[in-house]
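Batch manifest, entry 17 of 40.
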Amino acid sequence: MFGDTVDTRKVHFLIGRRIIHRDLKTANIFLNVNKQLKIGDFGISKSLDQSQMAATAMVGTPYYLSPEMVEGKPYSTKSDIWALGVILYQLCSLKLPF
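Output type: C-alpha cells
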C-alpha cells in the first residue's frame, strides 16, 4: 500500500549512488501531473566518495533527523531511511511521531 504512496525506489536510487539527501520530508516530495512522485530540494544533499563512509554535518529538518545526526555522530545513507520512516508514520497517523 505505502510503496505506491511513497515510492521507495527513489530513495533506493539515491542510496545506490551513495547520495545522502539529508532533508527528506513531506514538503520535499512532489506529485507531478502524471501522478508520479518526485523528490526535490537537493540543496543540502551530500555525495559520499569511495573513501567516505559517513558524513558529520548536522543539517536538515529536526523532526526528520536520525538519532545519530541529533547526537552529532557520523551518519550514512541510512539516515534517509530513518526520514522515510518518519514520512510513512506521518502519512499513516497524520501527525509527526515526536
